[in-house]
Structure formats: C-alpha cells, structure tokens
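Please, structure for the following, as tokens.
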Amino acid sequence: MKKVTIYTDGSCEGNPGRGGWAAILRYNKKERVLTGGSPRTTNNRMEMTAALKALQLLKEPCAVKLHTDSQYLRRAFTDGWLHRWHSNGWLTSNKQPVKNQDLWKDLWSEAQKHEVQWIKVKAHANNKLNNRADALAVAACQDAARELD
C-alpha cells in the first residue's frame, strides 16, 4: 500500500463568508498541491473540502497520514462521531440532521477506501507544511473574493 502524507487547511473571511481550502499531498519525492474556494461558505466546510479533495485524488487504496488543525474534522473520525452519524441515518444524538451532511457522506465514503490516520496539528505553530497549507488556503480565499469583485 502506498504511503501518502497530506496536510490540509481551510480559511474563511467571516463565518460564513468567502472561503478557501488547500491540500498538500506527498508521496515519495512527489508533491501535489490542490486549492479552491467558495464565495459563501464556512470555515468547517473549507476544512472538510480540503480533506475530501485530497482523498478523492488518490487513485488506489493508500495508507494516509492526514494532518489537520481542524478538531471538528479530526474528531469526527477519531472520536467515532462519523460512525454514529452514519449508523443513525445522519442524525445527531439530539435527532437533528447532521450539519454539512453532504460533505460528511462524501468524506465517509472516501475514507473507507484508505487507511487514514487523522493527525492533530496545532494551527499557526511551527509546522512548515501546515503553515504552507494555511497560506495557500488564505490565498484561495482571497482569490474567491477577487472573483466576486
């Protein structure tokens, strides 16, 4: 199984507001950078989109170390939230529809194809790749803002 390292981040000007996301994928000595944005979104959606787009890019099952500073994203997988939501028909413990259900369903599907280790990264700390993903997400957010002007 190929071993892939991924760093993701999302950015939002206002929440909701204009947003951007970025993912850096590394396999051996190869690197691929993905970015994108949206004119009206939330930070959580941008964090989730970055991870989803990165996982969708993988063409075969991989052992993935996915680094994120989003506790919402990481804990949904590591603390079993996503499994419970999936089992409960995408309802929370309060019987309310799960927010961002469209992205969660796609993330669930993509994550099932791989062995994903969800790794916590401290935001805006001394982590070169996380800081780079952040800068790329901010730039994608600014690009989304320029497209509206």
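The chain has a mean pLDDT of 94. Residues 16 and 42 are 4 Å apart (CA to CA).
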